[in-house]
């Protein structure tokens, strides 16, 4: 049976098509998100704004953080942390709590965006679409990326990209994207070692996070 947390990430992006190994430009897609459920506006793929959402799912936790970065039509960037706490009831996923707060990038926005763009954040394929990559791992961390950019809306997911980065450049780019985001916003992408775990819990339990009704 699929991990319920993975099912949640599939549900929240059900309106987006995933990127294949080749470049695909999706137009006029349905919203990527159940916006009302998570207190988010839908990513419709329409409009001049750019919106990037990266979900961090650690298989042994019921807390799913998400970093949201947005560039307005006036070319102004902003960022936000969303923390979703989930539970299970009769094998059904329940959203128990949603909290959020604004983030400030430690990296200059232009520099950060240029770096993410050079790592192909807008065009990476879904991990399952990479020829020759076979993921035999059944647990561990996954990273789900949702994008609204140039009138398109699409998504892709990577599971344990660090395990495949030596052989597949796409996984290496995903690792480097996560590293850049950790430098900019402080969100650890690997929960290895005491310092990283402490940093993670400090972020997701930050008292400045404001609760919302899911």
TrEMBL record:
Listed PROSITE patterns: PROKAR_LIPOPROTEIN
Protein origin, superkingdom: Bacteria
Name of the featured protein: Lipoprotein
């Amino acid at each position: 049976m699929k991990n319920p947390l993975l099912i949640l990430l599939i549900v929240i992006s059900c309106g987006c098509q995933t990127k294949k190994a080749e470049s695909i430009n999706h137009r006029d897609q349905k919203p990527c998100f159940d916006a009302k459920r998570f207190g988010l506006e839908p990513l419709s793929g329409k409009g001049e704004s750019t919106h990037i959402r990266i979900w961090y799912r650690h298989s042994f936790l019921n807390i799913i953080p998400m970093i949201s970065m947005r560039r307005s039509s006036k070319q102004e960037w902003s960022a936000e942390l969303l923390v979703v706490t989930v539970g299970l009831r009769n094998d059904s996923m329940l959203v128990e709590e949603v909290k959020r707060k604004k983030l400030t990038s430690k990296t200059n926005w232009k520099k950060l965006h240029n770096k993410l763009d050079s790592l192909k954040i807008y065009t990476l394929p879904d991990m399952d679409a990479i020829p020759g990559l076979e993921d035999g791992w059944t647990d561990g961390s996954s990273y789900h990326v949702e994008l609204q950019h140039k009138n398109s809306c699409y998504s892709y997911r990577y599971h344990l990209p660090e395990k495949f980065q030596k052989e597949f450049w796409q996984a290496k780019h995903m690792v480097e994207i996560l590293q850049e985001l950790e430098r900019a916003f402080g969100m650890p992408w690997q929960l290895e070692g005491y310092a990283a775990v402490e940093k993670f819990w400090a972020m997701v339990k930050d008292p400045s996070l404001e609760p919302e009704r899911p």
